[in-house]
Amino acid sequence: MSLLKILGRSDRLVTLFSVAALYSYDSSFRENAHRKFLYLLTLLFVILAVLSKDTGIFYALILPGWSILAKGRSIKETALSDRFLWLGLVVLGTLFVFLRHLAGFNVTIDAGELNLGFKYFQGLAILILKGLPLPHGLILNPIAVCSFFLVVVATAILWRKCPKPVRFAAFSFGVFIFPFPFFWTQNTFLWGFWIWASLALAGGTVFIFNKVIKQRNMTVKILSITVIVSILAYSSLWSARVADEISAPLIEKHEIARFAISAGCGPVYSREMIFAGFPDWAGRMEGYSDEEYRKKITYIIKLIQLETGNPASTIR
After folding, report:
1. Mean pLDDT of each 10-residue bin along the chain, 316 residues long
2. Domain end marker among 86, 105, 124
3. Could you give the number of structural domains in the chain?
């Protein structure tokens, strides 16, 4: 939360409004008398998601995925029954693209050129290898990793006997993750990876557990439950380790900002004093490019401004 005001566009808000849109849409299945109102409410939440972060327009694709994969409705039934909502989303998407064009933005405004061909597979493979509980630093062929993963995701979506939560999670995973490597790849995208991978794991685990419980062979039942518990335990331990790794840099920046405030006299704080207080961080800073160096210093300055309430605070 400490970087929320610095980043400007919030992943938390776009996620919140996307989930609210999904909840509103799901409610329309049960409330026939208020269906059009719920459609309008769904569109409102999608608009708020887009205003929070422009990727919210793509996240609206999970709505038809929920109807078809989670609710079990056919594509034709989904298209006809909810045509008012789909028309609104098409209009909204067209308006979104048109307004961006009028504003002079292009599709790669934040990322430069699109990553196509092998570059795309490299970026996607990085997300996959970082997102799965695999040995740290494992290096595999990007095309092989991506091809295998695409087959797994496609099979989960298209195989009708697959549990509904797994099918929906696989579809949403594709919506959230597959477009990103065209632009850029960074660790912050992994939150979407883990949300949908966790839903798929939970759905698959419940499905298998229900099958195992019905087994009459006690040995098979005990072994199966042991395997399930072991997988969940390993996943939990791995998740805790990764959470520590990801949160450590943010916690460190917050500690640096507090140290600067307590040890210095603002609003101008000494860079040398901060480096002397955190020599390991200072050593890592020397290896960054000028742009990355300025970005990390800016984070510290913004945190100091937030802590002190003084927008004139800076580091020199």
Report:
1. 46 83 90 84 89 81 91 89 88 80 60 77 87 79 91 91 90 86 76 83 85 81 85 82 79 87 81 86 85 86 87 85
2. 105
3. 2
Residue 209 within a domain: no
Q: Quickly tell me which residue has 């949300």 as its tokens.
A: 195
Q: Which pTM was predicted? A: 0.74
In a domain, 302, yes or no: yes
Confirm whether 75 is domain-assigned. Answer: yes
Domain membership of residue 264 (yes or no) is yes
Domain boundary (84, 105, 126) is at 105
Domain ranges, residue 1: 1-105
Return the bridge partners of 314, or none: 268
